[in-house]
From TrEMBL:
Keywords carried by this UniProt record: Amino-acid transport, ATP-binding, Cell membrane, Membrane, Nucleotide-binding, Transport
Organism classification: Bacteria, Pseudomonadati, Pseudomonadota, Betaproteobacteria, Burkholderiales
Keyword check for Membrane: yes
Classification via SUPFAM superfamilies: P-loop containing nucleoside triphosphate hydrolases
A GO biological-process term: L-amino acid transport
Name the record gives this protein: Amino acid/amide ABC transporter ATP-binding protein 2 (HAAT family)
PROSITE patterns in the record: ABC_TRANSPORTER_1, ABC_TRANSPORTER_2
Molecular function terms, GO-annotated: ATP binding; ATP hydrolysis activity; branched-chain amino acid transmembrane transporter activity
Entries under InterPro entries matching the protein: AAA+_ATPase, ABC_transporter-like_ATP-bd, ABC_transporter-like_CS, BCAA_Transport_ATP-bd_LivF, P-loop_NTPase
Species of origin: Pusillimonas noertemannii
Amino acid sequence: MTTLLELDGLVAGYGPLTVLHEVSFSIEAGARSCLIGRNGVGKSTVLKSIMGLTDWRSGAVRWQGRDIARRSTVERARLGIGYVPQTRDIFPSLSVEENLIAGLRNRPVSAIQRAYQLFPRLKERRHNGGTQLSGGEQQMLSVARTLLGEPQLLLLDEPLEGLAPIICEELIAAFDVLSRDEGVAILLVEQKVQEALAFAQQAIVLDHGTVVHAGASAELLEDPAILDRYVSVTQVPVHDH
Ligand SMILES: Nc1ncnc2c1ncn2[C@@H]1O[C@H](COP(=O)(O)OP(=O)(O)OP(=O)(O)O)[C@@H](O)[C@H]1O
Ligand SMILES: [Mg+2]
């Protein structure tokens, strides 16, 4: 197993605010991991810090052994880290296909067919505007656009948030294909803990900006004490429109 990404004592935050206190964990090539924890503990800040979107203070962010903590966001993306933010960054004024074209950069247009294979719903709606998409379709588009960069590691920030169970299943099935058939490593940040643990092999639990547990997801599923303590397991059903 080769280690793709390693955080080693990472301290980062926003301006004067330090959010992450010596966060350390690593992601192996092709592995499926999840990062869980309550609201506001710093999960999104971990992903943003991996992409260089926070104020770095100390510690290493290693990509295939090289420290990239001072590299720009664009450079990190080019190295093979794909990031799908919690905000579903799509261009609302552009159609599905135009959004994908905008994500192509120098890649051939045929790459879009691959995105449609993974998400047939996007193909059906390819001429719809970004605002005419359901929450689930927007999420699929956001993921599909990031995949055009052919990342080796995909960082997903609460992709299932606010989506109906059937749409969650479709997204998870697509992540499964990426992981199994294409060997893309996935770091999934999710509040839907059961879904996250069912998908991931490795679970990292964050609390107050520090890693409080890291280990096999299967072990954590059998340890309700840790889940009760650090993660809210109750879920409010939300419907996708
Ligand atoms: N851009 C920002 N500027 C200043 N503080 C921020 C910024 N973004 C987040 N924070 C603060 O950093 C802390 C961690 O936030 P973060 O968004 O990483 O949490 P989270 O675990 O992703 O929460 P959620 O589950 O609600 O998405 C919070 O106290 C938040 O207020
Ligand atoms: Mg967040």
